[in-house]
Amino acid sequence: MTQRGRNLLLLAPAGAWFLVMLVIPLAVVIIFSFGERGPAGGYVPAFTLEQYANLPARWAAFKNTLMLAPAGTLASLLIAYPLAYYLAVRADPRWKTVLLVLVIVPFWTSILIRSYAWIFLLGGRGIPALLDLIGIDNVRLINTPFAVLIGIVYGYLPLMVFPIFVNLDRLDKRLLEASADLGASPWRTFLQVTLPMSLPGIATGCLLVFILLMGEFLIPAILGGGKVFFVGNALVDLFLQSRNWAFGSAVAATLVLLMLVSVTAYMRLIRRLGAQREDVALM
Fold first, then answer.
1. Domains of the chain: total
2. Boundaries of domain holding 237
3. Which SUPFAM superfamilies does the entry mention (predicted)?
């Protein structure tokens, strides 16, 4: 057997899995998006652009998703980076494993239970009640975009921490020592050495969190209280309640397209920043 044949044989299981679990379902969704809703719901074969013309009816869901998904990703990054930096660079090696386990601990509990816990914290008897005691009254947190933002940052923070931690943990500490020996301040060392070297971890963490947030539906449903809808919530409504599979497929296909465009633009930006980093390193 030739080398090409061996390579194809090795790739066959992954290729078959990719075909069955991604390509075929996506093709079905695209086909359904050009159909019509049946009299009793479901799907009726047709070829029409009516479903795509009705997309503005779900503009609120798209707007919330396109605003809160990037905002949640950015907020997760701003919180996760200092934590990952401390764990990788500053933490006592004897306690590093314990601290990493503490980051993982929330994943030991269902996201559903953790989201319901935030209902109490953000509800009238939680944080607003504490604010009322110090004279800040009439604060409403639950069923708002802010509550959803808090929930998604809390839920997805570990997925941002670990890629950055792994990248920083592999950083050659001698580079930091050399920078200090050359007279660079800690802040300058961070900006010129640590931050550029951690870009791959940042890119991976942001990509993981952003893609998952674009399809999120549980946290907005619980903490949004039916007032803050994501596209995921719209899809649940269209497929399971109104049974408008054609329109739901059009919404899903549009979401996939938006994700492809966003991820492609993001990866190009990361590659450009990486190229600039290499150019600076060679100077």
1. 1
2. 58-282
3. MetI-like
Distance, in Å, from the CA atom of 115 to the CA atom of 103, rounded to the nearest integer, reads 17
What is the secondary structure of 35-81 as a DSSP string? Answer: SB--TTSB-B----SHHHHTGGGGHHHHHHHHHHHHHHHHHHHHHHH
Report the CATH number at residue 67: 1.10.3720.10
d(CA 15, CA 22): 10
Rounded to whole angstroms, the Cα distance separating 114 from 124 reads: 18
Whether 3 is covered by a domain: the verdict is no
Using one digit for the tens of pLDDT, what is the confidence trace for 136-165? Answer: 888 889 999 999 999 999 999 999 999 999
With respect to residue 198, please indicate whether it lies within any of the assigned structural domains. yes
Q: Which residue has the tokens 């995921």?
A: 232
Per-residue tokens: 80 = 């996760």
**Buried b vs exposed e over 73-100: b needs ≥16 C-beta within 10 Å?**
bebbbeebbebbbebbeebeeeebeeeb
Radius of gyration (Cα) for the chain, nearest Å?
23
Task: State pLDDT tens for residues 9-21.
Answer: 889 999 999 999 9
Distance between CA atoms of residues 199 and 180, nearest Å: 21
Residue 25 in domain = no
The model carries a pTM of 0.88
